[in-house]
Amino acid sequence: MGLLSSMFGSRPKVTPEHVDSRASFRTTVIESKLPVIVDVWSPSCGPCQKLVPVLIDVATRHEGKVRVAEISTEAEPALLAQLGVRSTPTIIVYDKGREVGRMSGYRPAGWFDELIETEFS
């Protein structure tokens, strides 16, 4: 352990939870006791790739306050049809099992911080 880690502590990175079926969507998102930020992404999407480190940072800093989940466009087709996503990346926010917001396109960490502080504090 380095000097800075011993002085300030070091938190392991929290990665978004992978969802690939309607069953895992139900347990991870709909039944969650915490609000959930869902990222629907495509492997060939540049903005989606740019969003990866942002979501890891958000999941790490807001652990215990919100959950962050990811759904690839290669997931179960019935799940993708249920979500009705038309472009990637699409961010869908759930609270108490209900969709409360949706936004398409890249968003910086500050956007997520403001969302979490405004809606879930």
Describe the fold and architecture.
41% of the residues lie in helices and 22% in strands. The chain has 121 residues and is α/β, with parallel strands linked by helices. The chain has a single domain (13-120), classed as Glutaredoxin (3-Layer(aba) Sandwich). The radius of gyration is 15 Å and the shape is globular.
Record the SSE blueprint:
Blueprint: H1 3-8, E1 17-18, H2 22-30, E2 36-41, H3 46-61, E3 67-72, H4 77-83, E4 90-95, E5 98-104, H5 109-120
Parallel strand pairs: 1-3, 2-3
Antiparallel strand pairs: 2-4, 4-5
Q: Structurally, how many domains make up the residues? A: 1
Give the CA-CA distance, first to last residue.
Answer: 33 Å
Classified by CATH, the class is Alpha Beta
Q: What is the approximate shape? A: globular
| Structural class estimated from helices and strands | alpha/beta
- Measured by DSSP, the beta-strand proportion falls in 15-25%
- Record the strand order, biggest sheet: 1-3-2-4-5
Q: Count the helices. How many?
A: 5
CATH topology: Glutaredoxin
Note the main attributes of this structure.
Glutaredoxin; 5 strands; 41% helix; 5 helices; five-stranded mixed sheet; single chain; 121 residues; globular
Summarize the structure.
This protein is an alpha/beta fold and 121 residues long. The protein has a single domain, classed as Glutaredoxin. The protein contains five helices and five strands, in the order H-E-H-E-H-E-H-E-E-H.
